[in-house]
Design a protein that fits this description.
It contains six helices and 20 strands. It is an alpha+beta fold.
């Protein structure tokens, strides 16, 4: 890709990949490009690179010492001649791609939603692209091929937007989170803010509860006052919806939330009008750095930081205390109890299936990470917060 990708999603037909990058651009790439051979792509890319290299080698400024007379311009020409061969040739993308839209800020998340005719007041079905950025904006654009048309904005965040969530059972609802103390619930089709959900208060309550219990005694915990001081500001690192059925067939709808540096997943019940009430805060073995939901929405998978202490983004766990089992956790909904519970059997099965891969990744990346702060790779959302805000 031209720049580092930071958000990826599929179009509703699952035929096209939408990829957003750190420069705010969104590209469309076909999932299965037609008529492209891997070997021919490599050869065409090599030829393109050779062409650009030869062009770069032959490129010299049109000015010369005969046409430049002033001392300042002669010095500038000298630097141009030195750097003429040092400029790297522009990279070409040897695969099908299309630039759809762009932000003037760093893009953080992207969703592609289709509103059917029955959900859009009998208007024709239409696809939309929702994008969030560092500048507190949520932009609503039309889908392909009219992605350049902006339908509107959802404006209400005071800090960066990091995660967007659109529940499948009500595609007109949007839950957004980022560097604010609250989750925001929108009717994004109208740009209306429906509800604010205080998330920071629930995070602080969970911290106090964990320290009041004996859960942290075996994990070499940090000082409680230090932890509370560190989380006067929070950042949402995960949002996903889940719709499940109880034992009597009653539909229950949840929004699962993960906060950067917090070893817990916060579950909220969500009503048809978007009102959210906390159901539970389920503790995890380590700080959660990402969550996702299974296709049938009765399993929530989450990635765990096994390097750092609970509630810390900088202090490393002692080697003899590090979790040996897995960096992936699974929660499943039990229709019998009506609760979300840790699924240790499935978690162990995933660990066995990915053990060799995890070992290979650790061996191949360990040398690259040696001497670097691993926290910068797992905890980067606070870097999106603009300096001077709330100071």
């Amino acid at each position: 890709m031209p720049k580092r990708p930071c958000a990826v999603t599929f179009t509703p037909d699952e035929k096209t990949i939408l990829c957003g990058d750190k420069f705010g651009d969104v590209y469309a790439l076909p999932l299965n490009p037609a008529g492209i051979d891997t070997g021919s792509v490599s050869q065409s890319r090599a030829k393109a690179d050779e062409g650009h290299e030869s062009q770069a080698a032959k490129h010299f400024p049109s000015a010369s010492t005969r046409t430049v007379h002033t001392l300042r311009n002669q010095v500038a020409l000298k630097h141009q001649l030195k750097s003429a061969n040092k400029k790297p040739p522009p990279k070409t993308l040897a695969f099908e791609h299309q630039l759809l839209l762009g932000h003037v800020s760093l893009l953080t998340d992207i969703k592609c939603i289709t509103i059917s005719a029955e959900d859009s007041d009998n208007r024709p079905s239409r696809t939309y692209i929702l994008t969030g950025d560092r500048d507190e904006h949520i932009r609503v654009s039309r889908g392909m091929p009219q992605a350049h048309i902006i339908e509107g904005f959802c404006l209400g965040h005071d800090h960066f937007v990091s995660k967007l969530c659109v529940p499948s059972w009500n595609p007109r609802l949007l839950i957004s989170g980022g560097g604010d103390d609250h989750l925001l619930v929108w009717d994004w089709t109208a740009g209306h803010l429906l509800h604010r959900v205080d998330l920071q208060r629930r995070v602080l309550n969970h911290i106090n509860h964990r320290y009041a219990s004996s859960e942290l005694l075996d994990h070499d915990p940090m000082d409680q006052k230090t932890v509370l001081a560190n989380y006067t500001k929070i950042a949402v690192c995960g949002l996903c919806p889940a719709e499940v059925s109880s034992a009597v067939g009653e539909l229950r709808r949840y929004i699962a939330v993960a906060v950067e540096g917090i070893p817990a997943i916060f579950l909220f019940n969500i009503a048809d009008n978007g009102a959210m009430q906390q159901e539970a805060a389920i503790s995890t073995e380590g700080n959660v750095i990402g969550i996702t939901v299974s296709r049938n929405q009765d399993h929530i998978a989450y990635a765990i930081d096994t390097e750092h202490k609970q509630f810390s983004q900088s202090q490393l766990v002692d080697m003899d205390r590090r979790m040996p089992n897995t960096s992936i956790g699974i929660m499943s909904y039990s229709a019998m109890t009506g609760n979300w519970e840790h699924n240790l059997d499935l978690q162990q099965a995933i660990h066995l299936a990915t053990r060799d891969l995890s070992s290979h990744v650790y061996q191949t990346t360990g040398a690259k990470l040696k001497g670097r702060d691993s926290a910068g790779l797992m905890y980067g959302l606070e870097n999106l917060r603009k300096r001077g805000q709330d100071e």
